[in-house]
Each structure stands twice: as structure tokens, then as C-alpha cells.
Amino acid sequence: MRPTSETIIGEFMAKWISSHRDLPMLLNQWANAVRWELRPRMFLRTTEFLWQEAHTAYADEAGAMRETMLALQQIYTRTVRELAAMPVVEGEKTPSERFAGAVRTFTIEAMMRDGRALQAGTSHYLGTNFARASNIQYTGEDGQLAYAHTTSFGMTTRMIGAVIMTHGDDKGLVLPPRLAPYQVVIVPIGRGEQAAEVVSAATALAQRLAGVGIRVHVDDRPQLSPGFKFNEWELRGVPIRLELGPRDLAAGTAVMARRLGGEKEPISLDGAPARLADELDAFQDFLLERATAFRDDHTVTVNDWDDFTKAVATGWARALHCGTEECEEEIKAATAATARCIPLDAPPESGPCIRCNLPSAYGKRVIFGRAY
């Protein structure tokens, strides 16, 4: 039950940790969490959600910070970029947006196709705050008692909503091939005696595709028309559809239709496994490139308030900020935009705050945007 499970984990870490030899302690749980949501949104903010939640304890800050950044950059960023084809910005939360009790909170922020931000994963360095609260102590090599430095990081079923809203369109889902349950669907087309021949050929083709690691499905439902099947698989976001009829068989080809872009085209049945493997890789790359271009086109560097309000109405604004909680609240009240993160790779920069003109506090620009 929310608000936090650090209290549960901390109690048991205190029982299990007594010596420096017990560190680091690395725990992970897959758990359903329940929390109060005034206005639930499917996948994004639900009363109950499933998530992966890790908790670690280290002897010192250096070890805990390495774990914090490992989770952010090598686990979460790589997962969403390489599997979900979602470009994310790695950054640190401002003090008012930190996880309660954390010393530092890091995030990966994604832009949805309506220009809003979605926090796709977070990683927290908790210092010794929770260790002191739960009495997580260890005896060091010098024989002295010390508090452990703890971390936590998590990613939830919110990622389902993120994939839907990053790639989908008015026709339905668009699934990255590396995530799609079916990467290729074969629709046999034929009647009477021809139907059995085509289904047999489609099944043989599917076995060859599966042999090279392609997740494939033959839709041989006789009660549904080919047109209905085409629309259904487009709605369900299958990356590639193959149409196979008697004429195609005679020509030694199948008709390939991609979920996005391009006309239908014939492909050789003999070369289908290699060709489709290449097509799936290209489609995965295309989705990442398209999402990156969309994000970049809707992210604006601003230096005055009018430009800021225009930018956050349709996307993100990169702006200098004084760092005060009061100013952040004023910005939110005026525009519904919040400080999403201080990008880790942003260049050094200073100047007046976009809202109050006080000196900027972070030495670089902050990303602001409306968020889910």
C-alpha cells in the first residue's frame, strides 16, 4: 500500500545487515501497489499498478550513487530506447520534485505524441535518511557502527501507456518489433480447394520465419474476410503483415504491408526470412528516429515568458530557473507545466530565471512541460 515501501524494505534490511560483509545488499521485487488516485488514467495513473521496484544498501555514498546511475542509464534508458524505441531525456529532479526522503532523484522523461511529458522511470539516492529511520547499521572494518547508504528505483506498467502514446496513431497501436507479441502476421487468401493449399503454404512459411527468431502468426480464421483481418491487425499494431494468395504462390512471392509508411510490395518467399528480419530492424530504428524527431521539433529553448508559455502549450521548454519552490508553483499555476528534469547532458549556462528574473540555480537549463 502506498505511499512508499521503503519502510517495509528498511525494516528487513535492518534485520539482515549487521556487518560490512553483508554489503552491498541488492533486493528487487515485482509487486502490485495500491494508491489513491483522484482521477485515474488507464495505464498512466491507476489505483493499482504492477511494477518492478529495487532497493539496495551500500557502505558509502560512492557505491550507492554508482547503483543509482547504473539503474537510470544502463537499465532504464537502454530498456526504453532499445526495446520500446522511446527516446528519453536523462535528468535530475529539482528539489521540489524529488521523491520524499531522497537526497537526489533521477528520472527518464519521455514525450508523448500530444507533447506532454511522461516520467518513464526513476532512480533515487536516499543517502542515510531511510537507514536512520529504520536503523540500518553495519559494523565497518574499523569496528565502528555506521549507517548504510540506500537507493531505490522502479518502473511500472505505465510503460504500456507510454508505448501506446509514443507510437500510436488514429488507426490504432503501432508496436516496436522488439516488443510486439506478433512481429509478422500472415493472412492466407483463397477459397475452396485453394484455401487449404494457401494455408499449408502460409504455415510452412511461418515455420521458416520462426526458425530465424521471428514471432509470427497465421490468421487462418475462415469466418472472417481478408479485409477485416487487415484492419484488425493494423489496429493491434503488428509491424508487418503478409498477404498470401494463389497467384502469389504461383509467382513464389507474398505481398508485404508495413504498419507505417510505404506501399504494399511483393517479396520473395525464398528470401522472406532474411528480408523480414531486415525489415523489422529497420522498422524498430524508424520508430526511434521518428519519436526523436518529434520530441526535438517540440522542444524549444526559451528566454522570455511569452515564448515559454507558447512552448509548454504544445511541448517542452528549456529554460533557466531560480530553483525556488515558490517560483515552480507559480509556473505550474500559470501554465500547468512542471519542472520535468535538469538534463544530465545539458551544457553549462547561467542567467535570469524565466519567471522571476532571479539568478538561475542549477548552472544549466531545466526542461519544463505539462505532464501525465
In short, what is this structure?
The chain is an alpha+beta fold and 372 residues long.
What keywords describe this structure?
372 residues, alpha+beta, BirA Bifunctional Protein, domain 2, Rossmann fold, Translation Initiation Factor IF3, 3 domains, ten-stranded mixed beta sheet, five-stranded mixed beta sheet, 10 helices, 27% strand, globular
Secondary-structure map:
Layout lengths: L5 H11 L8 E10 L13 E11 L2 H22 L5 E5 L11 E8 L5 E11 L1 H6 L2 E3 L5 E3 L1 E8 L1 H10 L16 E5 L3 H20 L4 E3 L7 H10 L4 E5 L1 H6 L1 E6 L6 E4 L3 H26 L1 E3 L3 H10 L1 E4 L5 H11 L2 E6 L22 E4 L3
Parallel strand pairs: 9-10, 9-11, 14-15
Antiparallel strand pairs: 1-2, 2-8, 3-4, 3-16, 4-5, 5-8, 6-7, 11-12, 12-13, 15-17, 16-17
Commentary on this structure:
By secondary structure, the protein is of the alpha+beta class. It has three domains: 6-167, BirA Bifunctional Protein, domain 2 (2-Layer Sandwich), CATH 3.30.930.10; 184-279, 3-Layer(aba) Sandwich (Rossmann fold), CATH 3.40.50; 299-369, Translation Initiation Factor IF3. The chain contains ten helices and 17 strands. It is globular, with a radius of gyration of 25 Å. 37% of the residues are buried.
Number of helices: 10
**Given the C-alpha coordinates, what overall shape results?**
globular
Strand order of the largest sheet: 1-2-8-5-4-3-16-17-15-14
Secondary structure category? alpha+beta
Question: What is the name of the CATH architecture of the largest domain?
Answer: 2-Layer Sandwich
Quickly count the domains.
3
CATH topology of the largest domain: BirA Bifunctional Protein, domain 2
Low-confidence stretches: none
Distance between the termini: 22 Å
pLDDT average, as an integer?
96
Question: How many E-type strands?
Answer: 17
- The CATH superfamily of the largest domain is identified as Bira Bifunctional Protein, Domain 2
> Element order, helices and strands?
HEEHEEEHEEEHEHEHEHEEHEHEHEE
Largest sheet descriptor:
10 strands, mixed
Proportion of residues in β-strands? 25-35%
**Helix proportion of residues, in percent?**
25-40%
The rounded Rg comes to: 25 Å
Oligomer: single chain
Briefly, what CATH class of the largest domain?
Answer: Alpha Beta
